[in-house]
Amino acid sequence: MNPLLDSALPAPGAAPRPALVDRYGRVLDYLRIAVTERCNLRCVYCMPEEGVELPPDGALLTADEIARIVRIAAELGVRKVRLTGGEPLLRRDIVEIVERVASTPGIEESHLTTNGLLLESRAKALTEAGLTGVNVSLDSLDAATYRELTRRDGLEVVLRGLRRAAEAGISTIKVNAVALAGITDREYAGFVDLTRDADVTVRFIELMPFDQHQIWGTGRFLSAAEMVADLRALYPGLRPASGTSTEHFAFRLPGHKGRVAIIPAYTRDLCGSCSRLRVTADGKVRNCLYANDELDLSAPLRNNAAADEDIAAVFRLATDRKAKDGWHAQRRPSKTPVQFVRASMTQIGG
């Protein structure tokens, strides 16, 4: 008997099995699935201008495989799914994928992270498919700076996409800005102003070292503590607000409908409440953003003889191996050959 497979899923008619709980008592009920590594931007904190090597044809998870992963994960206690990339809206079947995720029994929240370039044309269809939340990556409100950071034009297109998402009725809208010294700290006021008349959460996210070695270590890092101090100095009226487990600092200004939050993605103050697992676009499970190793989900998915319990076993093993925090995960010796190490965020899943 394989202890990883034994009772991995409840027998028909049996009581629901316990949720995925790691050795530190954290309940893992949030799954992030990358649906592509392709992107129509070349952000300096993510991809070099020439792009990155993409998985071979056939390696990308299909809509059927994603639906199966989500169904099994839901049976294991996952309640929230986020579709990421690369840029997920580049997939022609993304609306179908959202619909299948959102209609999965047990899934209570279906979200998507996008750079917003294609959001204007797809927001209505995504809402009708059941999408409950969208995060739009937007690092500058100045057109020239946006072009410098992304190596593309498109700021006005992204802003129209944000407005269209609100008009379409997507219930949770967040703006993710990767914090860069000399850029973000010049634009606090513009981002905070986005929260004045709209129920939007603007989130400043610490820079992470998954940029294909373009700008990490060049003095652009802006810490969460620095951002908190800056915002408190600029806005003495800031008041604490509730936020998600990753929004370690959340604030609201009197008279503003939205919120401002800070995510310590590199200093990792949020790890103690981490509730997530990740699946890469080519079907590998990562139990931490900073983990050096992965577990293969694609092999059992594509084995005609594999049962749902085989998929569940991979999630259980990933849960059992989850490190205490991102620092411990990063220090663990890697068994992954160097040529397969993911050096860009688009390869990991945003």
Topology:
Layout: E1 30-34, H1 63-75, E2 80-84, H2 94-102, E3 109-114, H3 119-129, E4 133-137, H4 143-150, H5 155-168, E5 172-178, H6 188-193, E6 200-205, H7 224-234, E7 239-240, E8 249-252, E9 259-263, E10 276-279, E11 284-286, E12 295-296, H8 298-301, H9 308-320, H10 326-331, H11 345-348
Parallel strand pairs: 1-2, 1-10, 2-3, 3-4, 4-5, 5-6, 6-9
Antiparallel strand pairs: 7-8, 8-9, 10-11, 11-12
Helix pairs in contact: 1-2, 2-3, 3-5
Please supply descriptive tags for the structure shown above:
alpha/beta, 350 residues, 11 helices, disordered N terminus, globular, 12-stranded mixed sheet
Q: Let me know the average pLDDT.
A: 87
Estimate the global geometry from the Cα principal axes. globular
The major sheet is characterized as: 12 strands, mixed
Write out the strand line-up for the largest beta sheet, numbering strands in chain order.
Answer: 7-8-9-6-5-4-3-2-1-10-11-12
Number of strands: 12
Order of helices and strands: EHEHEHEHHEHEHEEEEEEHHHH
Report what the structure shows.
The structure is a single chain. The protein is of the alpha/beta class. Helix content is 28%, strand content 15%. Strand 11 and strand 12 form a beta hairpin.
Put the structure in a nutshell.
With 350 residues, this protein is an alpha/beta fold. The chain is 28% helix and 15% strand. The protein has eleven helices and twelve strands.
